[in-house]
Task: structure prediction
Amino acid sequence: MRVVISGGKTLLARAVARVLAEKAQIILVDNTLPELSVPGVETRAGDLRDRGFVAEAVAGAEAVVHLGAIEPAFEDGSEAIDFATRGTYVLATEAASAGVKRFVVGSSLTLFQRLPAHWEVTEIWRPRPEPRVEHLSPYLAELSVRECFRVGATRPLCLRFARIVEGSTCPGPDSVHLDDAVSGVVSALSVDLSERPRHSGWIAHITAAGELAKVRVGNPPFPYEPTHRATGSAGMAEHSETGDWRRILGVQQPAPSRPIRNVVIFGAGGPVAAAAARELAPTYTLRLTDLRPLDAIVQENQPQSPGAPLPPLLEAPHEGRVVDVCDADAVMAACEGMDAVINCTVVRTDPVQAFRVNVLGTYHILRAAVAHGIRRVVQTGPAQNLLQDEDGYCWDYDVPEALARPGRSLYFHTKYLGQEICRVFAEYYGMEVPVLQYCQFFHPEMERYLHHFGVSWQDSARALRRALEVPSLPAPCEVLNITADLPHGRYSNRRAREVLGWEPRDSMERLWQRSGHTSGD
Result:
């Protein structure tokens, strides 16, 4: 059996490698492996974001144990998140292509850190990550693996580890002994999942035994019986925390609210933002930012698609800036003095920039919003339920917003991870983050092809206006379908109507009626 283990220089990876080396061929990989030697184990230094390196490493492997995202791999937070998301995606997709049968991803029980110790938290509970790198890295890696293996032959398992201690140290309430952590990984590799439904019990909490453990051993899909019991009284004060669970899980650091007068738009050179800028300019003072100067985009005169709007060149008090959302400092400066943010940035096909813009750029924008006390952030992206494969909703009708199925599609996958970053920030800080989902855009000169999820450029801009102006949202992060009223019955815009008070005006009837007929015939 050939097993690839990422995060090769970590304590857990080396311990797992030593145990597995007795009966399997082990390859330890990490970005650096300084003077690291495990008897009988091959080591390879390389970045998981390097597809060539990963493809060579997983060739011929039967299993992958991905431990590289449990802890931030870089001191720089932006780099750590890029590594945790793009590195996980590259490793997972290359493993699938290589025919790897088992993929184990390591995550962290710190995702439940703020839950009281007397709650019976098990694997069915939703993680509650905080908006910081040490939580986002393992959480986003979990999500990436889940989506990459919704379909296909590879069987995934997610192991959430408590804090790992070694030697004669007894584990505290939030810890697990190294020997037990290794036992969990070995069991995850050996368990037979062939008779289980694909996602029946694929998460396991690897923690110490006993009632003193903050998160207790649940019901994993494989035998896991830790031999070390949690001891000590640290953290036991949490047993006394009482009250409404909604309060405990609610907003931790409320963001302030203020009137919205100044709005910064990221990705202002694209058509969605261009239509929105024309709609909003008479009412708000806009700061339009893009990777390129807007006048250069206009002069080039190459709209994204026939009929797509180009950005307006607005005079003072409006402002234009060149800003790369991959640059955290530039994003921070662009948000200074603003009351709201609209994020229209997107990269669809570049395997590096899609992660850096759609995931990392969103992270930078949310961090800047918090730093500047901005509560309203409008996020845009593709509807996450459009895939027509077996992991999508091709047989369904009246499909609502919340059923995200991005799969391995680079565009959908990266925008989905960015959307989850929005949700984590919004719920922690009590922000107001409407996420507007689009697919196709209509224009008057359009040919007859019509997707069953589409909206006119003008209606899309009106939806963005309503996302800015709606007094409040039912939840901190609301995902909304922005589509016209269409007769197909496939996708629903009901929530956008209810939450935003938005009404699409353009039906483009000529695109779904036979030529020569009108609605009055």
Q: What stands out?
A: The chain has 13 helices and 18 strands. Residues 2-248 form a domain with the Rossmann fold fold (CATH 3.40.50.720).
